[in-house]
Design goal:
Methylamine Dehydrogenase, Chain H; four-stranded antiparallel sheet
Length: 562
């Protein structure tokens, strides 16, 4: 009975996550968007109130997503641009702000006043996090939890916000030395400090002592606030841009370069999964509803299932880079994104029943708003002048049917570039209709979305595209459209690490490299031939006075060479 009960529970969990993948993520629709004055470098949700904080330029705003992202509070007058924030509402009512000059300040959300100002860091503060703690009443500092900060000076500090002196409680030892450095003194070696910049920080939501910190040298540290030395040192092999602790503190998700890795904390940091689904740097991560979300400078948001680590959904924002992301806690029905071109974007969950009800209400409203007088005027305008002009649609005079767009044009019209490329590959147009496939590639390249559509493809799709490129480069009519596709494929998939992970496409890339080398050599020979022809023409023009009438140019050149 015990084994049967365990199987039934696991099946229920799996069935629940399947329902979430089928119903929730595809129905996360576009919501309100706002244009700010500077790039949105950081977005943080509060765990206790449904508001989120946005850092952009020299100001920090607290917005309400239920009121079309209306600004609730505004903090400004910072001496340098804001780099990182940490937001904790309700009982503590605090927001911590880290600036690029190394200053760190703590503000009261209710009173909009600065409570603490700390200057222990000597470089930009890249990460802030409030440690989990008991939330008391009011917005006083006595009920405030501890605050952790990391900066580009390579230091990770722990603060007691209620301390009026503004001195750190502890500095975590993130260096390779065996002894901890002093709290008040920065690292002595400037070169080592430049190589050991701290770039990311996250705190556990349940454990009041657990922290995670990422470094530019590719290391990630699991920290305990009760001791200065790291509890666990992990390796990512790339400069770390973001770290996220799992809700149950059983795993750590690390992002750096184009890679995302899942590391098990219960097994000493053993790698659970590693995948590359972005073709540009991954900038932020978010965890919610049994999925891991990643966004990057390629304008893509990838949703990965935490059970199978397969991609279940993708959101595209072409021609912009995503810098930050936050998922609302609890039900996680709102996703907030910040871009490098100053846009604040949101996505909200809309159930199919509510969407159908809203469409029906809009349809009934539009029918009720129609004016009978306008109907009569419209009917009078289309009425023919004479009865004999009315032609009945007889057997030989049927109305011409409305021309429908094909599937590819409909996808391009809706800016679903990745789905359009998948349609071209799955329908076999690369082999059967290469001209149409080349036209689709040309349209994607014209929109600047070809690289975005090519990212995260399986080996079968990459192999099909490489075969299409190899076939098209030898065709004079299609070579111009195949060159941008070949360039993007080489940039995304031809890296040595990527080829080692995809051994099936390595021979095709070798054939493409040989073909391109041959085309380059033929281009050089063509340029040399054109140069010789031009020289001959110039020589013939100069020797025209000595050339006898009726003597061919080649014979004259042969006689002169003798």
């Amino acid at each position: 009975m015990a084994e049967f009960k365990g199987l039934s529970v696991s099946f229920a969990v799996k069935q629940k996550q399947d329902v979430q993948k089928q119903l929730f993520w595809p129905n996360l629709k576009n919501g309100p968007f706002n244009k700010l004055e500077d790039p949105v470098c950081c977005v943080k949700y509060c765990q206790s109130v449904p508001n989120f904080a946005v850092a952009s330029g020299f100001q920090v705003e607290i917005r309400d997503p239920s009121a079309n992202n209306a600004v609730v509070k505004n903090f400004h007058r910072f001496k340098s641009p804001v780099r990182s924030i940490a937001y904790r509402g309700l009982g503590s009512g605090l927001i911590a702000v880290g600036e690029t000059n190394g200053h760190l300040s703590v503000h009261s959300v209710a009173m909009r006043t600065e409570l603490r100002h700390m200057t222990a860091h000597t470089a930009a503060v890249t990460g802030l996090a409030f440690l989990a703690g008991v939330v008391g009443g009011g917005s006083t500092l006595s009920a405030a939890p501890k605050l952790a900060s990391c900066a580009e000076d390579g230091r990770c500090l722990l603060w007691d916000v209620s301390d009026p002196q503004g001195q750190p409680l502890m500095e975590f030892d993130l260096s390779s030395a065996s002894s901890s450095t002093s709290v008040s003194a920065p690292p002595a070696d400037a070169t080592a400090a430049a190589m050991d910049k701290a770039t990311a920080l996250d705190a556990s939501q349940t454990d009041c002592n657990l922290l995670a910190c990422g470094m530019i040298n590719g290391r990630a540290y699991l920290l305990d606030s009760r001791q200065p030395r790291p509890a666990l040192v992990l390796s990512h092999e790339h400069p770390v841009t973001c770290v996220r602790l799992a809700p149950g503190d059983n795993a750590l998700y690390v992002a750096g370069d184009c890679w995302v890795r899942a590391l098990s904390l219960h097994q000493g940091g053993r790698q659970i999964a590693a995948y590359r689904r972005h073709h540009k740097h991954v900038t932020d991560l978010a965890v919610g509803r049994g999925a891991l979300l990643s966004c990057g400078l390629d304008g893509l948001v990838k949703v990965t299932d935490l059970l199978t680590y397969e991609e279940v959904q993708k959101y595209e924002y072409p021609n912009c880079g995503l810098l930050s992301m936050a998922l609302s806690p609890g039900e996680a029905d709102c996703l907030v994104l910040g871009t490098n071109d100053r846009w604040l974007l949101t996505r909200r969950y809309e159930s199919p029943a509510a969407a159908a009800e809203a469409a029906e209400a809009a349809k009934s409203m539009s029918a009720a708003m129609k004016d009978p007088y306008l109907k009569a005027v419209k009917a009078y305008q289309v009425m023919p002048a004479r009865p004999e002009d009315v032609v009945a649609p007889g057997p030989g005079r049927s109305r011409r049917p409305r021309q429908q767009l094909d599937q590819l044009d409909r996808l391009l019209k809706k800016f679903r570039h990745s789905d359009a490329l998948s349609h071209v590959i799955s329908k076999g147009q690369l082999k059967r209709k290469p001209q149409q496939a080349a036209a689709a590639m040309r349209e994607l390249a014209r929109r600047g979305a070809l690289a975005t559509a090519l990212a995260g493809r399986p080996d079968v799709h990459v192999a099909a595209l490489l075969k299409f490129v190899l076939h098209s480069l030898g065709n004079q009519d299609m070579a111009e459209d195949a060159l941008p596709l070949a360039s993007d494929l080489i940039e995304i998939y031809a890296a040595p690490r990527e080829l080692r992970a995809r051994p099936g496409i390595r021979p095709l890339f070798e054939r493409l490299r040989a073909l391109l080398a041959r085309e380059i050599e033929l281009g050089k020979q063509s340029a040399m031939c054109l140069g010789r022809v031009g020289l001959l023409l110039d020589t013939s023009a100069a020797a025209g006075a000595w050339l006898a009438p009726g003597v061919p140019l080649c014979d004259w050149l042969e006689l002169n060479s003798l």
